[in-house]
Amino acid sequence: MTYLPSGMPAPEPGPEDAPFWQACQDKTLKIRFCHDCTRYFHPPMPGCPRCGSMDLGWKEVSGNGTVFTYTIGHHAVHPALKGHGPYNVSVILLDDVDDVRLVSNVIDVPPEELSIGMPVTVCFEPAGNGMLLPRFRRRNPSSESTGSAR
Prior knowledge:
With 150 residues, this protein is mainly β. The chain has one domain. It is built from one helix and eight strands. The strands form two sheets. The chain has a five-stranded antiparallel beta sheet with strand order 6-5-4-7-8. The chain has a three-stranded antiparallel beta sheet with strand order 2-1-3, covered by helices on one side. The longest helix has 8 residues, at 18-25. It comes from Paraburkholderia polaris. This is Thiolase. InterPro entries: ChsH2_C (IPR002878), NA-bd_OB-fold (IPR012340), Thioester_dehydratase-like (IPR052513). Residues 58-125 form the ChsH2 C-terminal OB-fold domain.
């Protein structure tokens, strides 16, 4: 069982974000990295949004973060959500990658327990087409990192 219904649209990777989605299929979280100004950024772009460099790469990161903000959806914004209970759309501030935030869901927390600042860690769930999506679970603040941002 997945957090959102299987009829939800799945991402369609493009040239800039295909490595991000491929890493998700390998159950790792990789974020775009600028070798010149040594900063991470997301969403991926062809050039660094800070210094304009084209010397870019991808680095695996821990996937640990905190809930930066969230909203609870009660209305179906897509036909697949009709009859589906409340769901959250959360912005996750990743711990070890500058000011990078991912829009996702926290899948194991009831709406009334979700809170800003809650520690979370990435997990991967299949979308309707089988593609793995990064989602988040509650994390014990003392949990060890699962990856590296170096």
